[in-house]
Every structure is written in structure tokens, then in C-alpha cells.
Design goal:
Elements (H helix, E strand, L loop, with lengths): L2 H9 L10 H10 L1 H9 L11 H18 L4 H5 L8 H10 L2 H5 L7 H12 L10 H14 L3 H8 L3 H12 L9 H22 L5 H5 L8 H5 L4 H8 L4 H17 L7 H18 L21 H15 L8 H19 L1
Helix pairs in contact: 1-2, 4-8, 9-10, 9-11, 10-11, 12-15, 15-16, 17-19
């Protein structure tokens, strides 16, 4: 079908389709439109956002079935074909012959591209490789000097994921200050966050930032706006003296302080109970990956705090309680906390 018709038909399923490039629309018309119509007949809505445990299992099943069908001997070869140049032509031929696009997305009501990226994240052995050594950091600087922001190329050279190398470079290139935040730095951070939120607000034609306009220090705006993802690398640039992760952590601490109005959280008996509740709730989610957890929904185990605050508390809990946690995946960490740490905390309480 022609481009305009494809865009018009896709709009029923994807509200933001007007912002998608012509090239992507052509691909979606081929890979997604028929699937979307089938899901509509079944009364199933197209989804975005976090993948559920059920969807992750379906992706795993689809990948395993395709490997069995095609004879390709590993998920890494299937999903990261460029890492195997000697087998590339054969793998591409097998993927075409056995309809890779259709098979990988079977039973999942999402755009094909999102399913493919999720599969790559799930099956990439380079995703969880621990801290960067000093040698790796130097390599990263050299590769960036040669290839710029071609993170795909750099990730292949370093055997790390695209996101990992991009974020690590953002961190090491910054003029990092590891000391306490000064008043000037904190104000630059607040101003940067406000500027980003104002811009988003104008783009969305909302008036939710009216309270920010009234005061240069008041951070109170719609709770949903405070919780939203922010472009931290952009904010890092505006702050100038801290890298993106420090900016994010500092903002979350400011936000938590504002929202809890000075309550003492995670202290004494209340602290023990909060840890117990957090471990139990995380165990109940049966999540295989931290990205599957809705941290905002868990906020009430500690208090009226942002989801990012809960996630930070979980990080401290695993680092202090789980031996060799860097070598464990998310579900193994949760199992250890539930089986080993939880009884200890309950006895202490």
C-alpha cells in the first residue's frame, strides 16, 4: 500500500504515528499492519511500555522455536549476526527462508521493532558484564575518537551492549566531581530539570507547570510529571560538573525530600519492615529483569516516595546483602534475598 494509506491505517493502532519517519512507516506496513489487524479481530489492544513476564516467555519460546526450525545454533548468532561475519550470509538466508520477522513476533501485540530489541536485550551475553576496567575505559576513549557516536560499532569492538558503552562514555568524558554537591551545582540541576519540564509541557500543551512559573524554588508539580523519564545526558551537559547518573540520583534525593517533608524513612524498626516488605513484594512479582518491575507501584512499601527512590534502596540492599551479586541475574538476586536475607531480617525485627 502507498505511504499515506499505511500511515492512516497505522494511526488506529499507534497514536504517535505522525512523528514516525517515512522509512519506518514502510517497514511497519510490511511487518506490523497485518498483525495489528489480526489482534484487533481478537479484541487485543497493541501495547507499549514494559514487557510482562508472559511476553518475555513468549519471546523466549519464539526464539527457541526459530532456532530449532532454522538450524541456527545460537540465539546470539540469530540476533547479533554481525558478530559472526563468516556465517552472516548463511544466517541471513535462513532468516529469510523461515520468515524470521513473523516467527519472532508471534503472539505478542507490539510493534515488531520493540519485540526485536527486547529479544536482543534478553539474549545478549554482553549485557551484564560487570564494571569496566581501567583498560576498557581507555579502549572506549580510543574507539570513540575513531568512530564518534557509532555505538553499534563500538559495542561490537568492546563486546558490550550499545547502551552500556554509550552511558559509560557519557560518564567518563564528564568533568566529574565526586564530592558533596554545592549550592550552585544543585541550583543548576534544578534549573536544568525545570527547563526540560517546561519544554515538555509546552510540547504537550498542558498547564501543569504553573506552580513552577510562580516560584523559582518550588518543585511541586503534577506527580506524574515528576515521575517521568528525563533526558539525563542533556541535563548532565547543563549542570556541567556531574555526570548523568549523579544528576539523576541527586534529583531523586531532592524529590524524595520534598515529597516526604523530612520524614525519617528506612530507619530503625520502620526500616526493617520496609526491607521485609520490599523483598516480599519483589519476590511476588516473579520478574526476571529489573526493567519488568513497576517501581512506582512498590513505593508504598517505604513511604510516599518516587519509584526511583525504591529502586535505589533495592540497589543498596542487594550490594550489602548478596555476595557476588554482580555475577547473578535479577531473579537470582531476588531469590537469595527471599531465602537468605528475609528470615534474618524477620528475626531481627
Amino acid at each position: 500500500i502507498d505511504l499515506d494509506t499505511a500511515r492512516q491505517e497505522l494511526e488506529e493502532f499507534i497514536p504517535h504515528v505522525r512523528n514516525i519517519s517515512d522509512c519506518s512507516i514502510k517497514k511497519m506496513a510490511g511487518r506490523d499492519l497485518t498483525r495489528f489487524k489480526e489482534f484487533k479481530k481478537q479484541g487485543i489492544a497493541i501495547k507499549f511500555g514494559r514487557f510482562t513476564q508472559k511476553e518475555n516467555k513468549q519471546i523466549q519460546k519464539n526464539v527457541e522455536e526459530f532456532l530449532s526450525l532454522s538450524g541456527i545454533d545460537s540465539a546470539e548468532k540469530l540476533l547479533f549476526t554481525s558478530r559472526y561475519p563468516e556465517d552472516k550470509d548463511t544466517i541471513h538466508r535462513l532468516k529469510t527462508e523461515h520468515h524470521f520477522c513473523e516467527k519472532i513476533s508471534e503472539g505478542i501485540p507490539r510493534p515488531w521493532r520493540l519485540i526485536y530489541y527486547r529479544a536482543r536485550k534478553m539474549f545478549d551475553p554482553n549485557n551484564y558484564k560487570g564494571r569496566y576496567t581501567n583498560e576498557e575505559k581507555e579502549q572506549l576513549k580510543k574507539y570513540h575518537a575513531l568512530h564518534g557516536n557509532d555505538w553499534k560499532k563500538i559495542s561490537e569492538l568492546m563486546s558490550r551492549s550499545n547502551l552500556s558503552v554509550a552511558m559509560k562514555f557519557s560518564e567518563i568524558k564528564s568533568a566529574i566531581n565526586y564530592g558533596p554537591w554545592t549550592k550552585e551545582e544543585t541550583q543548576r540541576l534544578i534549573n536544568a530539570v525545570k527547563e526540560v519540564m517546561r519544554r515538555k509541557s509546552k510540547a504537550e500543551n498542558t498547564s501543569s507547570l504553573s506552580s513552577l512559573e510562580q516560584s523559582s524554588t518550588d518543585l511541586w508539580i503534577d506527580r506524574e510529571k515528576l515521575y517521568q523519564q528525563l533526558p539525563w545526558t542533556e541535563i548532565e551537559t547543563k549542570v556541567g560538573s556531574r555526570y548523568w547518573r549523579q544528576c539523576k540520583q541527586k534529583w531523586n534525593s531532592i524529590l524524595t525530600s520534598k515529597m516526604t517533608k523530612g520524614q525519617q524513612l528506612y530507619r530503625g524498626i520502620n526500616g526493617l519492615q520496609a526491607k521485609i516488605n520490599l523483598i516480599k513484594r519483589l519476590y511476588e512479582t516473579k520478574a526476571e529483569d529489573a526493567s519488568e518491575v513497576n517501581w512506582d507501584e512498590l513505593s508504598n512499601v517505604i513511604g510516599d516516595v518516587p519509584g526511583a527512590y525504591v529502586r535505589a534502596k533495592f540497589y543498596r540492599l542487594k550490594v550489602s546483602s548478596v555476595p557476588l551479586w554482580q555475577r547473578k541475574n535479577f531473579s537470582e538476586i531476588i531469590d537469595y534475598l527471599y531465602e537468605k536475607k528475609l528470615p534474618e531480617l524477620e528475626e531481627k525485627l
